[in-house]
Amino acid sequence: MIKDKHKQMKHSKIVIGGMRFSSAENAREVIHKAIDCGFNYIDVSPAYCRNDGIGSEEWVGAALQDPAYRDKVMVSTKCAPGNGGMQLGDFRKEGGFGVRSADELQQVFDQSLSRMNLPRVDWYHLWTTHTMEQFNEAMKPGGWYDGVMANKDKWSHLGITTHADSDTAIAFLESGKFEAITIPLNVINTTRLRVVDYCNANNIRVIAMNPFAGGFLAQHEQLKELALRYLMRLDVHPLIGFSAVEEVDYAKMIEDTMDDYPLSVDEILAEVNTLIDTSEKRCTACGYCTPCPQDIVVGAALSYYNLYKYMGMEEAKQAFQNKQWEAGLVLKNCVQCGICEKRCPNGLPVLEIIRDANRILYAEAV
Asked: Do 30 and 120 belong to one domain?
């Protein structure tokens, strides 16, 4: 019965991220509150909140043992052929990484169902797949995809989660195997909007992860509101890693007031730009300089630089340093080839800006 219900369930605008819970009780309170607010999709993974042999999968499962809540929500989990970054990984069953054979997929899939004490999930995602090498590894005979298809009676929909550039992400979707994609997208990183356009034209659901750029945008009240309202204006589903019921209340308030909110998408972006107070010409993350031979997403990386340099947000620098596992943000890999500067529609001295950003963003705190 649950299977049929969830196949017909309309996807809520805001979805629940399971990566920031602090305990089983915290997870239960947050999940129940979010479901009561109408948020009906939970994103979890084998690795989230994992400590001393327990984590989000167990906590989500426990919170959903009450049928009144399980019947109202879709559950998604996932695993990866890679190591969480840009490489293929060795098999790590507990965290769901390095899943490169159908047998390994079976082990991780069964582990997730056991941890959540559920007979099936509604969505299963190919997780942290950022390169064609990782994608091809998942699709090889006897690999991740074959393992998933051997369990097709235990899930309803397939998705993919990636930090790849737009061209690569769209190539993944052109395989026709996925009904949803989860990508980084927020008010200071709009470089993957072409993926959104492709998905909107092809009836593929877009889940926008990192809505607050790893949380640091939420440290500034005005940026916090603008960041969430920006995604609410797009045809995407913001994925929020709730850690407290108050955060759920805030998201619900934003959702409930969108009809009366006066700013359009472009006006929201313009408002963000007014907060970055500078007379200097600066990168606006338009994305026209991509692709980069070093796989750097220059606009995304320089967004952290802008907020640190011009708004004094120490959190932006820390967030940048914490996300150096993501190839697109490894600005120190720049070899000063000049391709981005030649493509810049605003004629910016991009190489000079990158040099200054490297000097500032990689400097240790005094």
From this structure: yes
Which among 77, 147, 79 has a CA at the least distance from the CA of 118? Answer: 77
Residue 19 lies in a domain: yes
Residue 97 and residue 183 in one domain: yes
- Is 78 inside a domain boundary? yes
User: Per this entry, what is the length of the chain?
Assistant: 366
Q: d(Cα 77, Cα 18) in Å, to the nearest integer?
A: 10
Give the three-state DSSP class for 213. Answer: coil
Range of the domain at 282: 276-361
Residue 225 CB neighbour total at 10 angstroms: 18
Domain count, the chain: 2
> For residue 57, how many other CB atoms are within 10 A of its CB?
27
pLDDT tens, per residue, the chain with 366 residues: 344 556 668 899 999 999 999 999 999 999 999 999 999 999 999 999 999 999 999 999 999 998 899 999 999 999 999 998 888 989 999 999 999 999 999 999 999 999 999 999 999 999 999 999 999 999 999 999 999 999 999 999 999 999 888 999 999 999 999 999 999 999 988 889 999 999 999 999 999 999 998 777 888 899 999 999 999 999 999 999 999 999 999 999 999 999 999 999 999 999 988 887 667 777 877 777 878 999 898 988 998 898 888 888 888 899 899 889 888 899 999 999 999 999 887 788 999 999 999 999 999 754
User: Per DSSP, what are the bridge partners of residue 42?
Assistant: 16, 75
Q: Is the dihedral of CA 93, 96, 99, 105 positive or negative?
A: positive
Looking at 203, 236, 263, the residue that finishes a domain is 263
Please give the Cα distance from 303 to 298 (Å, whole number).
9
Strand 41-43 to 157-161 pairing: unpaired
Q: In terms of domains, do 298 and 155 share one?
A: no
Same domain, 290 and 258: no
With respect to residue 83, please indicate whether it lies within any of the assigned structural domains.
yes
366 occurs within a structural domain? no
Is 46:111 a contact under the CB 8 Å cutoff? Answer: yes
- pTM for the model stands at 0.86
My answer on whether 180 and 312 are in the same domain is: no
